Amino acid sequence: MIFESKIGFDAQRALAYYMGNKELFVAAKTNVGILKLALPHIFGFALLSMIILHFLIFTKFRNSTFVKVLLYTLFISQFFESFTPFLIINISEIFIYLKIISFFIFMGLIPIVLYLLFDSIAQIKFR
Amino acid sequence: MKFTIIKDLNQDSMMKPILSGLLFFTLLYLLSDFIVKYSNFGIFPHAIHATLFGNEEQFIDPINKASFLEFWHVEIFFIMMILFTLSTVYIRLSKASKSAIVIVNLMMMSAITSLISLPLAYFLSSDFINIYVATFFIWHILALISTLYSLKRLRYA
């Protein structure tokens, strides 16, 4: 909800958030401004990922390839979610799609990890 | 944290990438913290003095009390989380060696001193800015060393 209201899921609106828009009186973001916004997310996301992922070790999914793919995808999407704004303002506006996609992947994978954990807990209970 | 009970962290195929990810992002956080503080709050005495008390020559207004307390409040939380997580991983990977315990203690004490000296500098005396700067650098450098050492142990041990 915060992402939608501040940045927006629409590419043009999200682009205006980073590149600025004179008609909407939105100032363009700077590298330092983006880093300031990203700073709490860098560690916060990493801690959240580590905490929920490491519980999977104690489940039956421990050695599954799916979980390993999940693990790497979560960290990679988290990296792009935090750092694509630098690519948007410094290299190309096309990276706005990477920003939105990585956000959805990151947000989508967390419920999947939680589902796997709940599933394992439920199976332990009824064994 | 349950990873503290896993026997060989650097041999565990699941725990290794998870902790590597956490340490990699911790490294990015520490480096970004330097840049963000340098450009906003300041990391050297004269810049911090200008932020806290303003500077007429440079037309800088002093930070207001509410903003300062909010900044301090966020700092306390993030430093606490970073240091507790990092020291847990570092002590575990260094097998609680004597040097690791010394580094963790120094890191914790310098971080606490930096957090305490900040409001003392704002409310009591600007001399505490120097203590803040010294301890800020000490805990950041020790945290960087611990992170890099932990990554090395995790990858190559």
Structure description:
The complex is a heterodimer of chains A (127) and B (157). With 127 residues, chain A is mainly α. Chain A has one domain (36-125). Chain A has 5 helices and no strands. Chain A has helices at residues 2-6, 11-19, 31-54, 65-90, 95-126. Chain A is elongated and about 60 Å long. The mean pLDDT of chain A is 86. The mean pLDDT of chain B is 89. Chain B is elongated. Chain B is mainly alpha-helical and 157 residues long.
List descriptors:
heterodimer, A: 127 residues, mainly alpha, elongated, B: 157 residues, 75% helix
Brief overview:
The complex is a heterodimer of chains A (127) and B (157). Chain A has 127 residues and is mainly alpha-helical. Chain A has one domain (36-125).
Characterize the main sheet of chain B: none
Query: Strand tally of chain A, please?
Result: 0
Tell me the span between the first and last alpha carbons of chain A: 39 Å
Helix segment count of chain B?
5
The structural domain count of chain A equals 1
Outline of chain A: elongated
Low-pLDDT stretches of chain B are: none
SS-based class of chain B: mainly alpha
Helix proportion range of chain B: over 70%
- Assign a percent range to the helix content of chain A: over 70%
Structural class of chain A: mainly alpha
User: Which oligomerization state do the chains in this entry correspond to?
Assistant: heterodimer
Rg calculated over all Cα atoms of chain A: 18 Å
Measured by DSSP, the beta-strand proportion of chain A falls in under 5%
Rg of chain B (CA only): 18 Å
Low-confidence spans of chain A: none
Number of helices of chain A: 5
- Major sheet description of chain A: none
